[in-house]
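Example 3.2
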Amino acid sequence: MRLFQTLKISVFVLFCTLLVLGTAILVYPLLQHVFEVQESEGNTGEPQLPEKAKEPEAVRVQLLCVLNEENTEFTTFYLEVLNNYAETVFYFEVPAYTKVTISQELYRKLQVYSPGLPQYLKLSKLAGSFSDDYRMQGTLQVLEEMLGISVTHWCSLEKAALQNWMEVVLEKEKDSSEFFKQYQNFVWEAASDQTTLELWMYYDAYRSFFAAWEGTIPGTEGIGEFEVNGQLAKDKLESCIRRMGN
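Structure, written as C-alpha cells:
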C-alpha cells in the first residue's frame, strides 16, 4: 500500500514538473518579446534601423511648414532640397501670401476633395480648403504645379520648433552632441508623411552636409502678396537638385 502511494506521488510530481517546463517553453518567447519592446521604448538614443530598411533618397525635396492654431491657414513655408551628391541641403522660403492660380486640369481633380476650393487664392488659404486627411497632399500638388518640380515629402511643425530647427541646421559649425539633441526634438515634434525611422535615416546628412540658405524663391513682391516666377523658380530648384559634388 505504501509503495502504491509513493508511486502515485512520484507520478504526480513528474506530471507537475512536465507541466511547469511546458508552460515555460510556451511563455518564454512572449516574455522575451515584451522585454525587447520595453528596452526599445526606454532607449532615448538614435534608433537602430532594421537591416532591410530602404536606402535614403539620393535627392529629396520636402516642404517644411507651420499652421496656425486652428489649422485653417499656413503661416510659414520653407522648401528643402537635400542633395547627397553635392553634400548640401538647400533652403528656400516660399511666402505664405503667395498668390496662386490653379490650372483647370488640377482644379477639377482637387474639387473632388474640396468642392468649395477657389481657383485663385493665396497659399496660406490652402490649409482651410482641404480636410485634415487631404490637406498636405492637396497643398503639395498645388506647389508642384506652381514650381514645376516634384515635392515628395512634408513636415509640419509649430512655429517655435521650426525656427529652432532652422537656426540649428543653418549653423556652419555643428556640435555633434547638441545637434543630436536638436534633431531628436525635430523628429519628435514634426508631423510628417515619413516614419520616425525614415526621418532618422537623414541624420548624418543634416549633421555633416553644408546647409545653404537661398533666400526667397524667385518672384515679385507686391502689396500684401507675392507672385512666384515659375520658370526662374524651376530653374533655380532644378540647379540644386542636379548639382554634383566637386
